[in-house]
Amino acid sequence: MSTPASLADRPPRESLPSALANWAQTEGLAWIYIFKAVLAALLTLWIAMRLDMPQPRTAMTTVFVVMQPQSGMVLAKSFYRFCGTMVGLVVMLVLISLFSQQPVLFIAATALWVGICTAGAARNRNFRSYGFVLAGYTAALIGIPAAQHPDGAFLSALTRVSEVSLGIVCAGAVSALVFPQHAGEQIKTTVRRRFSGFVDYVCRALSGQMDRPQIEATNAAFVADIVGFEAARSVAVFENPETRLKSGRLARLNSEFMSASTRFHALHQLMNRLRANGSMTTVAALEPYFREVAPLLNKSGEPVLNAADAAHAAAQLAAFKAALPKRIRATRIELEARRDTDPAFALLEFDTAAELLYRFVDDLLAYAETYASLAVPTHEREHWIARYVPRTNLVAASVSGLRAMIVMLVLGAFWIETAWPSGGTMVLNAAAVCALASSAPRPTLMAFQMAGGTLLATVAGMIVVFGLYPRMDGFLLLSAALIPFLLLGMFLSTRRSLVGVGVGYCIFFCFLAGPDNLTHYDPTGFINDAIALVLSMLFSSLAFAVLLPTDAPWLRRLLMRDLRREVVLGCRARVTGLATRFESRTRDLLSQINALAADRPDLQRDALQWLFAVLEVGHAVIDLRHELAAPGVGAREMSGTPWRRSIATTLDAVARLFDRPNTARFDAALTSTAQAIADLQTLLDAERPPREERHRLQRILSKLHFIRTALLDPQSPLGPYSGAQRPGAPHAS
After folding, report:
1. Is the pTM of this model over 0.85?
2. Are 119 and 397 in contact (CB under 8 A)?
3. How far apart are CA 207 and CA 52, in angstroms?
4. Is 593:604 a contact under the CB 8 Å cutoff?
5. Which cellular components does GO assign to this protein (predicted)?
6. How far, CA to CA in Å, does 177 sit from each of 173, 322, 434?
7. Are 466 and 523 in contact (CB under 8 A)?
8. Could you read off the pLDDT of 396-455 as tens digits, one per residue?
9. Which of 204, 421, 470, 532 has its CB 3.0 to 4.6 Å from that of 209, i.e. a possible disulfide?
């Protein structure tokens, strides 16, 4: 009996154990996190009530603010929250002592402080930004109510510290002791997956099995992985001593991965240009070396799975690297003999590609050696500083601070004019929302979703406060009444599309309906506070949408200019540590641009194209400057020599081109690069410098040639500025 086609085409059903295992790794982890957050909140509430704290709801709110799926994230966020709280308290005590009798000056000073802190939160990211958020928010939260009763400001400050500290301790304890999830485990998985993924990328790209869209997608994934890895590393150091001992190597591993991926992309692009321009002699001479690289990255034919396997791969790469210069020189001698019979062959093309191959092998070896060093607790490679410091554009951060200050001034003026009892709540909550939402990719939507969550929390809070609390007797019944409402908020916060709703619900349900030791049943005050909260969020959302919105094209253009200006810094900044800063800043800027253009694949692709151009030219420029900074021999190395002047002119022209691209600057960069190549070739032809010096001059010549080929790449975003196709574009010889 034949099977119907519709049944035959159906995929096989997943077995029950497999389905349960998949659920446990996805939704199961989310539900563990939800129950842990609720448990920590109830534990905090119980302890706060036993200690007879004035506002247990503040400690309970702190739990939902700092709670994260991983223990390291909780500890990191708690650390920065505590630091920000202390700074905010000190500043607010100063402001109260100065302006408590002058409401207008007090609101203005508070708005200025909140604006500065919001700018700091936007400038920094990850959990460092949270310290700035809390420094501003705490000042408003404590200062605005305390300013109305200055005699109790100091006691209010101490109470705030104790309640926040209790919430931090309980959240950290529950996260670390109850089904803990560690960022360190995520790092181990990422290191292993990224190394094997990069090896696979290298093998497939060198064999010609990847087209340009696949290469772009892979590199975009690498950028997201680099930024995420640094975020995980920065919180994993809070978890255990072992991770702290390896933190320097993990930072170095990230830096070396960036360098290796940049170098390989440059090599791959150069080989593609050589193929496109018919330079098959050079391609044929180098392809055997490429085929030898891939097997070196395996162990017994199997991919590298751990640090021990990486040590074996590093040993093979070290032997290959040691033999490579001699082999390259032998190949070069053979090709020199064929120049007369092959007029299309340019020896400079071979030198450039061979130099890039050697540099790539060197970077890959460093990457493998650092990976292998993770097998032991301590290692000499730990003693190396590679800082990855994410930074938002200073103008964009200043706009965020200015926006928060304007919002507070407008709402503060409304409060002073109307004398609305809940006006203070509206002002201080607007400060918190502006600071929190400013670091989100879509702050307008975030603030609007928080308003929706607060509306939901208002309805739930009225049911709890006026319907259930009067019937509660004892903490167990109180917990039973709160658990369903807290679970709802945490569930919403784990849904990607409803994060803002969940955050608004959890925080402001505790603010509105969190129980105190002495409960006050005041429906009018409850509704007034709820209206104030919702209005502050809606006004903040409107401010994000109207006052220089962060998703407007101006910010993307600003970040794109910052990305291009990394080449300018590569040409002009101090050389020491420049390569590491260049690698991290370019990836971080692309991550910011992609976040702003989340729904625009065309804009993301344009940014990725500029990243490729910046990495290729910028990396070559930095290598060139390192070679120039090396000690030279003889009068030919003096800064006033023609080839030195030509290179200085080239660096300036390239910097000007990437600062503000146009046709005239493109032509100037291309002309100056060609002139520098010609001057250096004249020097090498006319004189016979010592061997080491000649090799260094040839390396400088190769880097100049690569810069020229990168500028002439038809797939580069600089293509529109190149004008008509120039003869001799493939090479400069």
Report:
1. no
2. yes
3. 70
4. yes
5. plasma membrane
6. 6, 50, 34
7. yes
8. 888 888 888 899 899 989 988 888 888 888 988 887 788 777 777 788 888 899 999 999
9. 204
